[in-house]
Amino acid sequence: MTETLGQTDIGSRLMLGFQRVFSVLAKAGFGLFLLFAALAALVATTFIGIMLAIAAVFLTVGRPRRKAQIQPAASETLDARRTADGWVIEL
Fold first, then answer.
1. Which of 83, 79, 75, 82 is nearest to 91 (CA)?
2. Alpha carbons 78 and 89: distance in angstroms, whole number
């Protein structure tokens, strides 16, 4: 036997080194993916928020300024009385 129990050959050490390097690269790539996904979500929610704000401004500006004057007629008085089932309105 030319090898001792504690030593390994150069091929397995090289493969172990490659595995460690690619493991670190995979973790870094996944971290970058998560960062990109969070940035995309931030941009999307910002864009949707701006669209909602613009729609609110247009709805505020576009509403009519004058309110319709409702004048109740004197002959249209409603009488209501409370019953066991709720309120009943009589004309």
1. 79
2. 7
- Tell me which DSSP letter residue 88 carries: E
22: left (phi over 0), alpha (psi -120 to 50) or beta: alpha
> How far is residue 72's CA from residue 76's CA, in Å, rounded to a whole number?
7
Per-residue model confidence as pLDDT tens digits over 56-76: 999 998 887 776 677 666 666
Query: What integer pLDDT is reported at residue 78 of this predicted model?
Result: 74
| Collapsed DSSP state (helix, strand, coil) of residue 6 | coil
Helix residue ranges, H only, the chain: 10-62
List beta partners, residue 89.
80
Distance between first and last Cα of the chain: 113
Distance in angstroms (rounded) separating the CA atoms of residues 58 and 40: 27
Element (H, E) at 79: strand 79-83
Could you identify the residue written with the tokens 């970058």? 32
